[in-house]
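re the bet — no i am not wrong, look at it urself. input seq straight from the record:
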Amino acid sequence: MSKKKLQNSDWRDLIRGAGALKQRSAPVPWRARLRKLWLWIRRLFLLCAIGGLAFGAWYAYRNLYIEEIFSSEAHPIKKIEFKTDGVISPKWLTSYLKLPKKSTFNDVNIFALKNSLESLTQVKSASVERIYPDTLRIVMTEHKPMVKFFAKVDYTDRIYLMSPEGIFFEPICVNAGFVEKLPSLAGASLKFDGSVPQKYEHAAALEEFLAYAQAKGELANWKEVNVSSLANLTMPLLSVKTRNGTQIIFSTKDYIKQFDRLEYILRYSKEKGLNAIERIDLSLKGRADVKYSDYPKK
């Protein structure tokens, strides 16, 4: 039977058979696949390298001022553009930079200038750019104060401000009246990095507490916040001393109820003429204890 079919086959069948063999693809060895993958990785790496070189060239053009390097003409700095989200003033910055008159772009090392600005503890970040033809642009972000902290460093009394992120900094151009109204931080076990305290670990918990106090209008009456028991695992507490000398103790849970009780106690005391309050304990479950220093004796 097969012989008959073979004999009846013509040249068309042979061509069709050869085409079918060509259409069937041979399996690709794993080594060939690895070589192909390596080829694509090399191409991708080359593209990344080209992109990096292009960015480097652009950055150098913007910051290194290529034109002046290869030209004999030096462009004088006629204007300093200064922008900050804080309180450092242009006048203070000018006195700090101490750029000589008729300084040129060639005279200013913008990288050294950036590092100098960021060495200021109040400055969170700084950028310095040359803007053709005669402008030096400085943009800064600053730490915002939440509380103040007093410490003795090298036999000198110093005042620091602490940001909501727990960063301590020495104040620059911060209004003295504003600093006076800030509550002071007490009871914190802090280590120093040089002349500045290291980051306070429980700043987030303190920020939450002070935000409630601010919303209730109580923060302005507070002189000191003691955080010595804030990290206590069994009963974390916060103790406040008001400007009238009253001590108020808070638990770190359910601030809304505690501030509502505090509002009632202060209103009741005012109505009854009991102004000298020594201590208010709001940390107790379901109640608050109040001690008056001028409570009338029966």
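see?? The radius of gyration is 36 Å. told u. also Residues 1-6, 64-72 have pLDDT under 50 and may be disordered. so pay up
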